[in-house]
Design brief:
- The complex is a heterodimer of chains A (about 575) and B (about 325).
- Helices cover about 45% and strands about 15% of the residues of chain A.
- Chain A has about 575 residues and is an alpha/beta fold.
- Chain A has four domains: about 15-235, Protein prenylyltransferase (Serine Threonine Protein Phosphatase 5, Tetratricopeptide repeat), CATH 1.25.40; about 245-350, Rab geranylgeranyltransferase alpha-subunit, insert domain (Immunoglobulin-like), CATH 2.60.40.1130; about 360-435, Serine Threonine Protein Phosphatase 5, Tetratricopeptide repeat (Alpha Horseshoe), CATH 1.25.40; about 455-575, Ribonuclease Inhibitor (Leucine-rich repeat, LRR (right-handed beta-alpha superhelix), Alpha-Beta Horseshoe).
- In chain A, the strands form four sheets. A six-stranded parallel β-sheet of chain A has the order 12-13-14-15-16-17, covered by helices on one side.
- In chain A, α9 (about 180-190) packs parallel to α11 and α10 (about 205-220) runs antiparallel to α11.
- Chain B has a two-stranded antiparallel ribbon.
- The chains are: A alpha/beta (about 575), B mainly alpha (about 325).
- The complex binds zinc ion.
- Zinc ion binds near residues 238, 239, 240, 280 and 290 of chain B.
- Chain B: Belongs to the protein prenyltransferase subunit beta family.
């Protein structure tokens, strides 16, 4: 069904083809009906093997017939001598090889070969490795063959070092070989393990890879493989779990805890709370969507007792200490402590990374920093020759971001604009990337002023298309995102402390996401594309909402729309005219 | 000197509008020619083929043209004692045909026509200690089968029968350096496999394992100058990848990262105006497989002539809603 060109043919040719097919069909039908009747009668013999072979040679995806062959072999194993069996299996391997030459991408054929190798008395694994070499010479991207190779390597205990050499030989033959780069990413952590490094690969091994892939993109700057691999090398691996922030809302008796990584509280994970050393018990946790699924934000649940909402009962002392601990499978994963004062309605604490210029980049040794600096210089050279190469520009951006986002901020933005012009098809990707970098810079700035526990963030007129990292903004009380290009507010459920939100002059068509925000009082949605009362329905779940600005939205242009909103949101002041 | 980038050129006379009626006619006629060479030779795909055709018809709003009772009767006759379905009568049961059977019955709201209890038991029996799934009793392991298993059981509302944590762990172990997924741990990334793994994580509510920006970037880089999408780096574009890549992007909320207009142009150019149906590339032979994925992709791209499609299960959204299936989206 792939790559069959439609050709115009004469009536004569069509008739000839029809006749030929009719003949083939007769043979096929005769063979299959014989096969099915033999199978039905339990005749698992060499004749069945032969018949299946005839059909499979032309139809390798007829999976049932591969199964029959397996059944025949399992049956023959009971009666044949080891030598006879070995010869039968050798013939099977020969047959399979001819099938694979005709159709090297048939799942069934490759899987049957695995079966044969695992079932025959005396398998020659090294010969199979040689077969893989041959097939990969013919098509170096055949993933079936690569997978078969990995199967052989495992069975024959071929060393990862030998396989790394093999991938090297493929790459030196042709840098444009995604399969080989992929293979290296799997082998390096086995050969040069280092759990302290982000990729699990020791630093000096990674530095050699930088050199190799640099050769690659200088040889072939338009080839994706090198660039994808390079981006992997620059990666920062997985974050360690930690408490990101803790908030205590005293009047409601509500506590929210946000983590750096997702967790599902309930099953094997639990959050323990201690007030001045004594545990708070019987607490139910729900995530930011009031559900039980994986999330980074967990909130103590209000137990509903008829006619009354009851929160966690908190101490009345003037000052007390709250200890938070995440426990998974009875092991403490991370913890935090917060000092709560009675006169404060809302006490909060935010985790700030120490010793990092940015929480969004990794800790770097001086060797690594030096290497990245050299990379940046090399890329800059490449950009001078290949002025329109988007990969080089993007890589420069990523290098600058990894090295020192603050120092390179202006240059990063210029290059992101350039990328949007160079690679128009992916313009929205670059806009989102830009939006992410802007928010990351803002959070880095908040981290630097760690003492003041910033609770307001203002990013108007920044061309934001998406609010990244809202999960790190759980303590904000005021957020101004006016005059941007936001299309939705789906990630806003994390903003649990938010009181005021300015989203005027964006492209919103719905408020879906502004859900269960327990402190939200004022929302400015002027000049968006909200066209129906239903698009505002989720605001019903924000209990303290007092004021809603809707100037310049289609929904308030008709009387019915405004009436509909008032019905949905009784008691909320709806502003439909700008105060000049 | 560089390796030339593989792509196609869209001929200037290629179709530019959707021939929806012709596609529906093509599918309806396909099932009629039961003695046709092509038809007979693809019997090992029959159940999948029927799912492609029927879903294509449903997306075109013309499912009522197909013979419902004949279809259900065929599906029933393919269920084995073990509970699994084969692709055709007399063939062996397999997870791939079992999912297609369950999807067909869901389209027709006729799950009670078969022994669903046995399906559940059989699918469950294929799960291995490492969380992976065999495609059948012969032991081939593939993340496609992980998707088939959870998709089947969620359509039957019996997902809890599986060891979901283990199943997720296995799928996550197939994630690669590029954020995308392969067939088994160690296998290279491939868009079809990405669709299965992302779909699997959506069905089970574990999408947080995905680095959406990293995966989304790899996926949107599948778009070539012609507008078409390929399945892996340095490969030719193909209509079926329009579906696998787009559906994955949709699930992780990154659909806007491709150039929709150019992609629509490419997909429309793969239609055969004469016969109806879509081919993999402009000028190639059409088949039901690419016809369904062409239509489904156009639906995701906002073509109102085609019914809204569910990106996880590749069925009309209205049927998924009626079935009451819960899916996660980022
Ligand atoms: Zn295709």
């Amino acid at each position: 069904m792939h790559g069959r060109l439609k050709v115009k043919s004469t009536a004569e040719q069509q008739e000839a083809k029809r006749k030929e097919r009719e003949k083939k069909l007769q043979i096929y039908n005769a063979a299959t009906s014989k096969i099915f009747s033999k199978k039905k009668d339990g005749e698992l013999d060499e004749e069945l093997l032969h018949l299946c072979g005839e059909v499979l040679a032309a139809n390798p995806d007829f999976y049932t017939l591969w199964n029959y062959r397996k059944e025949v072999f399992l049956e023959l194993r009971k009666s044949k001598s080891p030598t006879e069996l070995q010869n039968l299996f050798l013939a099977e391997l020969f047959f399979l090889e001819s099938c694979l030459r005709m159709n090297p991408k048939s799942y069934g054929t490759w899987h049957h070969r695995c079966f044969v190798m695992d079932t025959m008395p005396d398998p020659d694994w090294l010969r199979e490795l040689e077969l893989c070499n041959q097939f990969l010479k013919y098509d170096e991207r055949n993933f079936h063959c690569w997978d078969y190779r990995r199967f052989i390597v495992k069975r024959a205990n071929v060393s990862p070092e030998a396989e790394l050499d093999f991938s090297m030989s493929k790459i030196s033959n042709n840098f444009s070989n995604y399969s080989s780069w992929h293979y290296r990413s799997k082998l390096l952590p086995l050969i040069h393990p280092d759990s302290g490094q982000p990729m699990g690969v020791s630093e000096d091994a990674l530095l050699k890879e930088y050199e190799l892939v640099q050769n690659g993109f200088f040889t072939d700057p338009d080839d994706q493989s090198n660039w994808f691999y390079h981006r992997w090398l620059m990666g920062r691996g997985e974050l360690k779990q930690a408490v990101n922030s803790v908030s205590v809302f005293q009047p409601e008796g509500r506590i929210s805890v946000s983590f750096l990584r997702h967790v599902q509280v309930g099953k094997s994970a639990s959050i323990s709370l201690e007030c001045d050393g004594s545990p708070l018990k019987n607490i139910k946790w729900l995530n930011h969507e009031n559900k039980e699924g994986h999330s980074t934000l967990w909130i103590t649940f209000f137990l509903f007792i008829p006619f009354r909402l009851i929160g966690v009962i908190l101490p009345i002392a003037e000052s007390w200490t709250l200890d938070v601990q995440l426990v998974i499978n009875n092991l403490s994963v991370c913890s935090a402590q917060i000092q709560v004062l009675a006169e404060e309605k809302n006490s909060r604490k935010r985790w700030v990374p120490s010793g990092l210029s940015s929480r969004f980049s990794q800790e770097m040794s001086s060797v690594k920093a030096e290497t990245l600096q050299q990379e940046l210089e090399a890329i800059t050279q490449l950009m001078e020759v290949e002025t329109d190469n988007k990969w080089a520009v993007l890589t420069a951006v990523l290098l600058m971001k990894a090295l020192d986002p603050q120092k390179h901020e202006a240059e990063i933005m210029v290059n992101l604009d350039k990328l949007q012009a160079l690679d128009f098809k992916r313009v929205e990707y670059y806009k989102d990337l830009r939006s992410r970098f802007i928010v990351e810079a803002a959070i880095d700035a908040m981290d630097r002023e760690s003492s003041s526990l910033a609770t307001t963030l203002s990013l108007p007129h920044r061309g934001l298309t998406k609010l990244y990292h809202s999960e790190l903004l759980t303590l904000l009380t005021s957020l101004n995102l006016s005059d941007n290009q936001l299309r939705d507010v789906r990630q806003f459920g994390f903003l649990q402390s938010l009181r005021e939100l300015d989203l005027s002059n964006n492209c919103l068509t719905t408020c879906h996401g502004l859900q269960n925000l327990p402190c939200l009082e004022k929302v400015v949605l002027s000049n968006n594309q909200l066209s129906s009362p239903e698009s505002l329905a989720t605001l019903q779940t924000c209990p303290y909402l007092k004021q809603l600005h809707l100037v310049g939205n289609p929904v308030v242009e008709q009387e019915a729309g405004l009436e509909g909103i008032k019905e949905i949101l009784p008691g909320v002041e709806i502003i439909t005219q700008s105060s000049s | 000197m560089g390796t030339p980038i593989k792509d196609v050129v869209i001929p200037s006379n290629a179709p530019k509008t959707l021939f929806l009626q012709k596609h529906a006619d093509y599918i309806a006629a396909y099932g009629e020619k039961k003695d046709d060479y092509e038809y007979v030779m693809t019997e090992f795909l029959r159940m999948n083929g029927m799912y492609w055709g029927l879903t294509g018809m449903a997306l075109a709003g013309q499912l009522d043209r197909m013979d419902r009772s004949e279809v259900i009767c065929f599906v029933q006759s393919c269920q084995h004692e073990c509970g699994g379905f084969s692709c055709s009568v007399g063939h062996d049961p397999h997870l791939l045909s079992t999912l297609s059977a369950v999807q067909i019955l869901t389209l027709y709201n006729a799950l009670d026509a078969v022994n669903t209890e046995a399906v559940v038991k059989w699918v469950k029996s294929l799960q291995q200690a490492d969380g992976s799934f065999y495609g059948d009793k012969w032991g081939e392991v593939d993340t496609r089968f992980s998707f088939c298993a959870v998709a089947c059981l969620t359509l039957l509302h019996r997902l809890e029968e599986l060891d979901i944590d283990k199943a997720v762990e296995f799928v996550v172990s197939c994630m690669n350096f590029d954020g995308a997924f392969g067939c088994r741990p160690g296998s290279e990334s491939h868009s079809g496999q990405v669709y299965c793994c992302v779909g699997m994580l959506s069905v089970t509510g574990h999408l947080h394992h995905i680095n959406a920006d990293q995966l989304g970037w790899w996926l949107c880089e599948r778009q070539l100058a012609s507008g078409g999408l390929n399945g892996r780096p340095e490969k030719l574009p193909d209509v079926c990848y329009s579906w696998w890549v787009l559906a994955s992007l949709k699930i992780i909320d990154r659909l806007h990262w491709v150039d929709k207009d150019k992609l629509v142009q490419f997909i429309l150019a793969c239609q055969d105006e004469e016969t109806g149906g879509f081919a993999d590339r402009p000028g190639d032979m059409v088949d039901p497989f690419h016809t369904l994925f062409g239509l489904a992709a156009l639906s995701l791209l906002g073509d109102r002539a085609v019914k809204p499609v569910n990106p996880v299960l590749c069925m009309p959204e209205e049927d998924i809603r009626r079935a009451g299936v819960n899916l996660q989206f980022l």
